[in-house]
Write a structure and sequence with these properties.
It is a single chain. The chain is built from three helices and six strands; from the N terminus they run βββββαβαα. The protein has 109 residues and is of the alpha+beta class. The chain has a domain of 67 residues. It has a four-stranded mixed β-sheet with strand order 5-4-3-6, with helices on one face. Strands 1-2 form a two-stranded antiparallel ribbon. A hairpin with a 5-residue loop joins strand 3 and strand 4. It is elongated.
Length: 109
């Protein structure tokens, strides 16, 4: 198991084993981060990782996960912006006993 040196924002340089780190990669943007729990202060550190850093960490046996951006980011935004009055109306609606059925009837198409 490889020893990897990383930097904790509070403790400075720390040595970790490959099993102590995790690489996370976004499938959509190819952005990546690595994370670890500092062995000294136990805080979780998340750092951005360029592709060459990802390659080195994966070659050292660090586990990785891939994730996708939420589908909502690709939806078309339409309609008027939500106002303060809309929020107050919604708050009042939630205080009624039949709020869910009322809300569901507003969105039926």
């Amino acid at each position: 198991m490889a020893l990897i040196r990383a930097t904790c924002s509070d403790c400075g340089d720390v040595e970790l084993r490959s099993r102590d780190l995790k690489v996370r990669m976004c499938r959509n943007t190819e952005a990546a981060t690595y994370l670890f729990r500092c062995p000294t202060c136990a805080m979780i550190e998340v750092r951005p990782a360029e592709s060459h850093v990802v390659d080195v960490l994966l070659a050292a046996g660090v586990n990785s996960t891939e994730w996708d951006l939420p589908a909502e980011l690709h939806e078309r935004v339409g309609g008027p912006a939500i106002t303060h009055d809309d929020v107050l109306d919604f708050h009042d609606l939630l205080s009624t006993a039949d709020w869910f059925s009322t809300l569901a009837s507003m969105t039926d198409r």
